[in-house]
Amino acid sequence: MIGVIGGSGLYRLLDDVRREHLKTPYGEPSGDVAIGSIADQEVAFLPRHGVKHTLPPAQINYRANLWALKQLGVTRVIAPSAAGSLQAHVKPGDFVVCDQFVDRTRGRADTYYTGPRVAHASAADPYCPQLRELALEAGNNAGVTMHETGTVVVIEGPRFSTRAESRWFAAQGWQVVNMTQYPEVVLARELELCYANLSLITDYDAGLQGEPNVPAVTVAEVERVFAANITRVRQLILDLIPRIPNERSCPCGTAMQGAFIGG
């Protein structure tokens, strides 16, 4: 089964679905999971912020969301999200297939291993290389502007960055700023799920270097750009899913081997 976690603006993927209301050892996920099919492939869709966007980034139950998908038999997760650009060449309407993250959140429940069993997951290469390659193929085939790598800095939110923070992030060479990629990606790793992020750029962040007149980020602008591109987001996912083979040729399925203290 393929899992899709919808970000801001993407609260529904398929029309013909059955809904599963799941409970997990970590509480309830963001909402019911809608299960349907694309090209004979079973797909489970979960809106990250809830179907009416009632959950801010820090209040999302990331552990329950990933656990619920795993419970259903999901092995791959596609995770589209709205994001801001930190670099002039990464433009609103572009997609970035992130390959690295920098965590600037605080206090989020970010592991399943809180004791007595202790594990240290490797996060050196946190995103699935197989899914990333297939996402790039699907986007390029559709004529979408795809950036094949990118570092996303994940901020706590719900506020947007100050200009000083944004200039700092940009000066590090990071490409994308977002509020939800962490801890979602590392929890997927702990469950040995393949995980790929598709960041739709909705705005230039406030401190973009070399662009002194960049306006402050607003919810209205983010929603406007996402609404204008929602068809492309959905189509990219619909084009990507049939490309995913049954067999995994990546290390994600064995990511936790050797991660446990004392075996």
Low-confidence stretches: none
Describe the global form.
globular
Record field, number of beta strands: 11
Provide the CATH superfamily.
Nucleoside phosphorylase domain
CATH topology: Rossmann fold
Written as H for each helix and E for each strand, in order along the chain, the element string is EEEEHEEEHEEHEHEH
Q: Give helix % range.
A: 10-25%
Q: Outline the biggest β-sheet.
A: 11 strands, mixed
Give a quick summary of the entry:
The protein has 263 residues and is of the alpha/beta class.
Could you walk me through the main structural features you see in this protein, from its secondary elements to its overall organization?
- This protein is an alpha/beta fold and 263 residues long.
- The protein is 25% helix and 22% strand.
- The chain contains five helices and eleven strands, in the order ββββαβββαββαβαβα.
- Strands 1, 2, 3, 4, 5, 6, 7, 8, 9, 10 and 11 form an eleven-stranded mixed sheet that branches.
- A hairpin with a 2-residue loop joins strand 3 (33-38) and strand 4.
- The longest helix has 22 residues, at 219-240.
